[in-house]
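User: Please predict the structure of the protein below. I'd like the answer in structure-token form so I can feed it into my own downstream comparison script.

Assistant: Understood. Taking the following sequence of 119 residues as input:
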Amino acid sequence: QVQLVESGGGLVQPGGSLALSCAASGSSFSIYVMGWYRQAPGKQRELVALGGTGGTTSYADSVKGRFTISRDNAKNTVYMQMNSLKPEDTAVYYCNFVGLRSGMHYTYWGQGTQVTVSS
């Protein structure tokens, strides 16, 4: 069973920066994708950014050029640096881990961390 521990988040003014991190423990997967989703009040959960084992990354159009995802494979940890934050970035951010083994996908979620962008 993979457990995800998130840290970071909080309150920041528009234009400010925050960093999130998520450490995975209990993983025996050699191939996995880690990333971040977010859910704002009254909206569906949406993809923010993903980081693959080989270093590939993908971003939602709304955060391209402002957010940067990175991974430390030795620590099974994913980071996301969020710059130039906007009020519309306010949401609960969830760490996501998808392990791949024998053609099967195994998905795990963190507990979520609040990011609030407000003056």
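That's the full token string. The first strand starts at residue 3 and ends at 8.
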